[in-house]
Amino acid sequence: MSQLPEQPSEGPVPTSADVARLAGVSRATVSYVLNNNSTVRISDPTRRRVREAAGELGYVPHAAARSLRAGHTRMVLLPAGNHPAAPLHHRFFHELESGLRRLDYTVVQHGSLGLDAEEAARAWAELRPVAVVAPGGIALTPQGIAVLRRSGARAVITLGPQPVEGAHALVMDEREVGRCATTHLLERGRRRIGVVIPEERGVGVFAEPRLAGARRAAAGGGARIEPLPLRYEEESAAALAARWRTLGLDGVFAYNDDYAMLLMRALQDAGIDVPGETAVIGAEDLMLGRLLRPRLSSVRMELATAQPLADLVDRLVRNPGGEPERHDLLSARAIPREST
Amino acid sequence: MSQLPEQPSEGPVPTSADVARLAGVSRATVSYVLNNNSTVRISDPTRRRVREAAGELGYVPHAAARSLRAGHTRMVLLPAGNHPAAPLHHRFFHELESGLRRLDYTVVQHGSLGLDAEEAARAWAELRPVAVVAPGGIALTPQGIAVLRRSGARAVITLGPQPVEGAHALVMDEREVGRCATTHLLERGRRRIGVVIPEERGVGVFAEPRLAGARRAAAGGGARIEPLPLRYEEESAAALAARWRTLGLDGVFAYNDDYAMLLMRALQDAGIDVPGETAVIGAEDLMLGRLLRPRLSSVRMELATAQPLADLVDRLVRNPGGEPERHDLLSARAIPREST
Fold first, then answer.
1. Which CATH number applies to B16-61?
2. Which of A53, A197, A126 is CA-nearest to residue B73?
3. Considering only residues 311 to 330 of chain A, which have any Cβ-Cβ distance to chain B shorter than 8 Å?
C-alpha cells in the first residue's frame, strides 16, 4: 500500500485525552459521555463540561478505535445499489437507515460495482460490519455469506426476490407483481398474454420472477403466456410492434411503466388500438402512467414499513445463533385505468 | 452504548496471527502481502503461501486496525444522496468509485437523511475518512468542513452547483442548463418565457441556478422571464394550465423532462397548442421525451469523465496544503425536437 505524507501543518487531530484534560475528567468519562452510554451514571454538569470541551477542540469519537476496544463494531452495511434505485426502494432504505441510527448503529453503504460477488463480500468484510443487508443472488452468494460470518458479522440478511442459503431473508416476492398484472388481464377477458422481458443487464433478477408469477396466474385461467424480449430503445419497440399481429396477443404485461410507455407508443404508431386490440398494463404505478392517453393501468407495489425491520436487524445481531428467518415485504395490487 | 453478547459459537474470528502461523511467516509479512504493499520485496512462493493460508482460514484484513496502525485511513466517503439519483449522476459516482478503488482507496457511502449538516459532518468524521466528496450547500457547510478537517480528512471536496468556502469544488454549474434552454427558446422567436420552479423540497438547489441562467440569457435577448411554481401533481399542473392565457407566455422551460411531460399534458388538456401557442422545453434528455407527441425538446447534460477526478482526489490527499481548487464538470446543449 502506498504511503502518505504526514498530517498537514494545521495541527494534530484532537484526541479524547485532550478532551479529558480540558474538561478535567478521565478518558473513560469522556468515552461514556460521547458514546451515549446510559449504563454509567454521570452528572449532568459533567456531561455538559465534556460536551463543551469536545466542541471547543473539535473532537469527534473515532468509530474504528471504539470498535476495536469493544471487540465488535456497531456498523451495519447496506451495499449501494448498482442501478438508480426506484423511489419505492429508496424510501425503504432511508427508513431502515434512520431506524438503525436511532438504535445507535452506524449505517454505511458500500458499492460493489465492478467486483464479483466474492470480491464484494471480502471488501465488505474488511470493514468488520456487525450486520450486512445486501441484495441476494447478485451481490451475496453462500460463499460470500460465509466470508462475512467468519469476519464477525452477526447478522447477514439478503434482500430480494429469493432467499439465499445460510442468510436471513427479507423477501420481495416479485412473482406477486406478475400474478397481479396477469390476473387483471384475465379478468378483462384476455387469454393470449405477452410478458415483456427487458434485455438490459441486471434486470433479469426481477423480470424472471415476474414472468413466473404471470405463468402461474395464466395456468389457473387457461391462458397462453408469450415472453417478449425488449430493449429500452425505440427501435426495439418498433420491431416488436411490427410483428405484433403475427403474435396474435390480446394483452401484455409490459414489465413496468417505463417499458409500458415505450411499447404502447410503438403499438399506437403501428396502428394497433390500445386497449381495443391489445390491453397494456405496467407496474410500479409511476406518475407518467396517469399522463399517458389512454391512461396506463399498473400494479402498485408496497413495501412493509422499515422501522420494525431495524428492530429485526438489532434482534438478529443480539441473538446470532438462530435458524435463518424469512420475512415477506412486498404486496401488490392492480390499479385499473384506461389501457386495459 | 448497549452491550452485545459474546461471539456466536461457530468459532473465533481468524486473525493475521493465525494466518502467519499457518503460512510459517511473520505477521508483518502477512500484512505486507494482503495489503498489496509493493515497497517490500517478498518472493512469489511466500506470497502464494500467505494467500492460501488466508483463504483456508477465511481471513480478511481489518480496515480499521490497518488504519489505526497507519495513523490514517484509505477511506473516501461519498455520502449517499437523499434523492433517487439521476442516471447521469449515478453513472458518474460509480465511475469515480471504480477509479478510487483502482487507486487502492476504500470507498464508502454514508447517508445523512434526517441529520442536519453539522450532525452529518460529525457522523462522517467518526469514520476518519482521508477524503470526503459531498454535495455542497445541503450537506456540507463551512462548519462541517472544519470538523472534517480537524478529524484528519486531508481532502474535503464539494460537488454541486456552487463552491463552498474552505473546500475544493467539483462544480456542476446548473445555470448552464437554464441558459441553453432559454437561448433555444429565444432562437425560436419566443420572448415571454416561463421557467418552472418545482415546489418539492430539496430541488431548489438545482432550480434556482437554472432560473438564474435563464434570466441571464433572457436579459441579453430582450425577453421576459416568469417563474412558475409547480408541484409534481396533476392538480397543480391543471391549475397552472387554467391560468395560462392570463400569463401570456409563448415559451416555457419546464425544469426537466418529467415536469415538462406533466405540464405539456395539462396544457394539451386545456386546449393550448404545443408548440404553436407555447413552446415547451425540458432538460436531462430522458427517453420519455422522445415518446411524447409532440416529441419533447430537451437540454442534454454531460458530466466530465470521472477517472481524472479519482486522480485529482488522490493528488489532493497527498498534497493537502494547497489553495481550494475548482473544476467544472457540467456541459449542456439543446436537443431540438417537435415541442419548440
1. 1.10.260.40
2. A126
3. 317-321
